[in-house]
């Protein structure tokens, strides 16, 4: 469930439409409604990552020379 929720959260962050498909449901075994709560928790924890004890990791992956990958996913927009 965690993996499916993380995948769903990433798709929402990237504004993929639809965020969850019948193919994803088939392969994961989860309907969108079943992973929504876990996905919201993941997004909440992710949005607070700059405030956590792991600030060094947050800063490292926010830098352009490290690809700025963290900034791509910093504010997921869940439906």
Characterization of the model:
- The model has no long low-confidence stretch (mean pLDDT 81).
- The protein has five helices and no strands.
- With 79 residues, the chain is mainly α.
- It is elongated.
- This is Cyclin C-terminal domain-containing protein.
- It comes from Brassica cretica.
The total count of strands amounts to 0
Straight-line distance between termini: 18 Å
Low-confidence stretches: none
Succession of helices and strands? HHHHH
Mean pLDDT: 81
Instruction: Assign the structural class, choosing from mainly alpha, mainly beta, alpha/beta, alpha+beta, or little secondary structure.
Output: mainly alpha
Number of helices: 5
Query: What share of residues is helical?
Result: 55-70%
Q: How many whole angstroms does the radius of gyration measure?
A: 14 Å
- Report the β-strand fraction as a percent range: under 5%
* Major beta-sheet overview: none
Shape: elongated
